[in-house]
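Quick one:
INPUT:
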């Protein structure tokens, strides 16, 4: 009898993670019941009961794991580059940029640690190696539902090795790339949206960086701004929009030509995240940018100092996970 109870308990335990193991335990428990005459009837009844139980348990577990009311944003340490994972409160996932090819394993590991097999929205802010170099490896290792890239019809493309590699990977995986521009809502769910603020359709910039997708992710009363490598020219184009946010991914790894005073005043974040490599050759982040952020009383978090940075929102406020 003790063995029966033990197996039933094991079945309940396994029902949280492994349906097959749970079923084996339950059936073994029923089979070991001492009353031979009732064994058959009990088995039939048990099958129905167990299936119902598992269905309810699974439903509850699903709600516990994905509907906990939290949005988690992980700024992955990819050295000199950008890669940010967003886990929305309804379980949807977005990966903005994938660092250089050298760091694709770091990105993949972060996804695996978070039990992510499917990327609902894979976003390449702009076709530079430190943002899309790692994309082919990610596309081959994960199921990608949608790929989103900036509208760049106003740009005369020279040969772009990394964009070519990415396009080949997308083609091989049968993924269609969507082109997004100002005011496009690229994703949304219960209480959250991801909206593109830049570039505008048919925008003409000299610098490819300025075509970076600037995306505002809003969840409840909180907002995060992802800027890629957009510089002043792109920032100044959108000053009339609602740029207010709690967390700003500081543009272009803290380069002098990004995060101008006017843009910073409009965004007015409490936290600025700089994704930057240790002892990088451009000596980023720039001292003037750090000064601008400090003068505004913005808490600065840097991947070269802190490694991967995790910030959560419950819809009311943001919290840095230490
Ligand atoms: Zn970059």
């Amino acid at each position: 009898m003790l063995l029966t109870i033990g197996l039933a308990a094991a079945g309940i335990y396994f029902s949280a993670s492994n349906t097959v193991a749970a079923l084996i335990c339950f059936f073994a428990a029923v089979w070991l019941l001492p009353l031979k005459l009732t064994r058959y009837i009990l088995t039939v009844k048990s099958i129905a009961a167990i299936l119902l139980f598992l269905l309810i348990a699974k439903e509850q577990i699903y709600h516990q794991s994905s509907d906990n009311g939290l949005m988690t944003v992980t700024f992955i340490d990819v050295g000199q580059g950008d890669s940010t994972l967003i886990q929305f409160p309804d379980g949807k996932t977005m990966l903005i940029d994938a660092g250089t090819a050298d760091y694709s394993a770091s990105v993949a590991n972060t996804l695996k640690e978070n039990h992510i097999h499917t990327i609902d929205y894979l976003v390449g802010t702009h076709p530079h190696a430190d943002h899309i170099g790692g994309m082919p490896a990610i596309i081959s290792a994960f199921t990608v539902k949608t790929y989103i890239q900036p509208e760049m019809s106003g740009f005369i493309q020279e040969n772009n090795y990394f964009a070519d590699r990415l396009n080949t990977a997308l083609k091989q995986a049968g993924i269609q790339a969507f082109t997004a521009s100002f005011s496009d809502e690229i994703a949304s769910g219960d209480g959250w949206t991801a909206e593109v603020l830049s570039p505008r359709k048919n925008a003409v910039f000299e610098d490819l960086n300025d075509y970076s997708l600037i995306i505002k992710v809003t969840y409840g009363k909180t907002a995060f701004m992802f800027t890629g490598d957009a510089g002043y020219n792109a920032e100044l184009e959108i000053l009339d929009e609602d740029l207010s946010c709690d967390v700003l991914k500081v543009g272009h790894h803290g380069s002098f030509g990004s995060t101008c005073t006017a843009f910073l005043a409009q965004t007015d974040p409490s936290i600025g995240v700089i994704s930057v490599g240790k002892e990088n050759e451009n000596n980023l982040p720039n001292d003037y940018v750090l000064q601008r952020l400090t003068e505004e009383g913005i808490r600065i978090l840097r991947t070269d100092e802190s490694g991967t940075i995790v910030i959560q929102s419950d819809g009311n406020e943001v919290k840095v996970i230490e």
